[in-house]
UniProtKB/TrEMBL annotation:
InterPro entries for the chain: G1P_thy_trans_s (IPR005907), NTP_transferase_dom (IPR005835), Nucleotide-diphossugar_trans (IPR029044)
Cofactors required: Mg(2+)
Family, similarity comment: Belongs to the glucose-1-phosphate thymidylyltransferase family.
Highest taxon, organism lineage: Bacteria
Originating organism: Palleronia pontilimi
This protein's name: Glucose-1-phosphate thymidylyltransferase
EC number(s) from the headed UniProt entry: 2.7.7.24
Domain Nucleotidyl transferase span(s) in chain numbering: 6-241
Keywords (A to Z) from UniProt: Magnesium, Metal-binding, Nucleotidyltransferase, Transferase
Recorded catalytic activity of this chain's protein: dTTP + alpha-D-glucose 1-phosphate + H(+) = dTDP-alpha-D-glucose + diphosphate
Molecular functions (GO terms): glucose-1-phosphate thymidylyltransferase activity; metal ion binding
Annotated function: Catalyzes the formation of dTDP-glucose, from dTTP and glucose 1-phosphate, as well as its pyrophosphorolysis.
Length: 292
């Protein structure tokens, strides 16, 4: 019997690049226009059809997240909270979440990543439908040295993924969205710390690649991928969401809308959520969904 795919959001770290604004609050709870940052990765998992989500965060920030998000039931979801005592690399998430996954395939998204595109649900669904192995996404950037970078051979096949190379072999970075099968946690146990002292996600991905079980799918011009690790990128992300929202009159990353459209909550639940925020445009948008 197939076990339903589960979601992981890695929302740990100290956010030092965003000091002083993150000295008293988790980076993933900072606003991106009209919603907390973490709403956006939650919405990506929801668009994938995932309802069981583990949120990995720090001991200091766990209570903030619980107050902000509750248990997820108001969106038809179930949240499991996992505390990361020390950040030791992205691959550590699969060790921390092993009991939560309990043999399920997973989709992990970084808590400071935002994805947008008309065909995003299709792309997510295709990746989720894959059986064995994993899928990650390559996205062309001007500063690939900040990321894990895809190294292609002369025939355009993926040779390896290199973490933050000084001389990037291509312009294609791997985004913070990882679809991996049920072997991820077991494989992660074989990952050793890098020279940076971290359990690198690229080491785990290269294990899949060596077995011929990793797809690197391109995210082309029709998609936007934003991370929010600096003051400038935080502002850019907020302006991007505001422009789309106000130009089109449609929300970006709205869990209430996704939950309602998928039938995970009913009209009464949606109305209650909208009335909670009725004094602002976000709540009014939610209430407006009842009229559409």
């Amino acid at each position: 019997m197939n076990v339903a795919r589960k979601g992981i959001i890695l929302a740990g770290g100290s956010g030092t690049r965003l000091y002083p604004i993150t000295q008293g609050i988790s980076k993933q709870l900072l606003p991106i226009f009209d919603k907390p940052m973490i709403y956006y990765p939650i919405s990506v998992l929801m668009l994938t059809g995932i309802r069981e989500i583990a949120i990995i965060t720090t001991p200091d920030d766990a209570d903030q997240f619980r107050r902000s998000l509750g248990d997820g039931s108001h969106w038809g979801l179930s949240f499991t909270w996992i505390v990361q005592e020390r950040p030791e690399g992205l691959a550590q998430a699969y060790l921390l979440a092993e009991d939560f996954l309990d043999g399920a395939a997973s989709t992990m998204v970084l808590g400071d990543n935002i994805f947008f595109g008309h065909d995003l649900p299709i792309v997510l669904g295709n990746a989720a439908a894959k059986g064995q192995g994993g899928t990650v996404f390559g996205y062309r950037v001007v500063d690939p040295e900040r990321y894990g970078v895809v190294d292609f051979d002369s025939d355009g096949r993926v040779k390896s993924i290199i973490e933050k190379p000084k001389v990037p072999p291509s312009k294609y970075a791997v985004t913070g969205l990882y679809f991996l099968d049920e072997t991820a946690s077991e494989r992660a146990k074989s990952v050793t710390k890098s020279a940076r002292g971290e359990l690198e996600i690229v080491t785990l991905l290269n294990m899949y690649l060596a077995d011929g079980q990793l797809d690197v799918a391109p995210m082309g011009r029709g998609f936007a991928w934003l991370d929010t690790g600096t003051h400038g990128s935080l502002l850019d992300a907020g302006n991007f969401v505001r422009t789309l929202s106000e130009r089109q009159g449609q929300q970006v990353g709205c869990p209430e809308e996704i939950a309602f459209s998928k039938g995970w909550i009913d009209r009464d639940a949606l109305r209650a959520l909208g009335e909670k925020f009725a004094k602002n445009s976000y709540g009014q948008y939610i209430l407006g969904l009842l009229k559409d």
